[in-house]
Automatic annotation (TrEMBL):
This is Trafficking protein particle complex subunit 2-like protein. Keywords: Cytoplasm, Endoplasmic reticulum, ER-Golgi transport, Golgi apparatus, Signal, Transport. CDD domains: TRAPPC2L (cd14854). Belongs to the TRAPP small subunits family. Sedlin subfamily. Residues 1-24 form the signal peptide. Its main location: cytoplasm. It comes from Delphinapterus leucas. It comes from the Eukaryota.
């Protein structure tokens, strides 16, 4: 059970609520983003348990908008192995539609899967992959 945060400013990958990958641009708001991600985990857990009770199609991994704040919108995604991805985007960024957010999560999930399939990566260690970092950077540039 882990989660990932992607924003126009921060990217974090967590496994069992332990950070595996952290990236902030700019760094002055890093603590604020960490707080928003931690508070969104409750909403993610609620949505996951509601999905289990309703027996929703298990192929739908996108949780949608978790909650909006004045400055940011928080989106969620969960994998079949219960790794949680959380994306925080500026509310002022109206160019991002639900389909773009969904495709960003898929791209992030595919890159995460590539990291996990690396035989030299030990699950639970911090991710130090240049390919993953490059993909995240390119995604953050597109979001900004």
């Amino acid at each position: 059970m882990g989660w990932i945060l992607v924003t126009s400013a921060t990217v974090i990958l967590f496994l069992q609520n332990y950070p595996l990958y952290i990236r902030s641009v700019p760094t002055e708001n890093e603590l604020k983003f960490h707080y928003m991600v931690h508070t969104s985990l409750d909403v993610v857990d609620e949505k996951i348990s509601a999905m289990g009770k309703a027996l929703v199609d298990q192929r739908e991994l996108y949780l949608g908008l978790l909650y909006p704040t004045e400055d940011y919108k928080v989106y969620g995604y969960v994998t079949n192995s219960k790794v949680k991805f959380v994306m925080v985007v500026d509310s002022s960024n109206t160019a991002l539609r639900d389909n773009e957010i969904r495709s960003m999560f898929r791209k992030l999930h595919n890159s995460y899967t590539d990291v996990m399939c690396n035989p030299f990566y030990n699950p639970g260690d911090r991710i130090q992959s240049r390919a993953f970092d490059g993909m995240v950077t390119s995604m953050m540039i597109q979001v900004c």
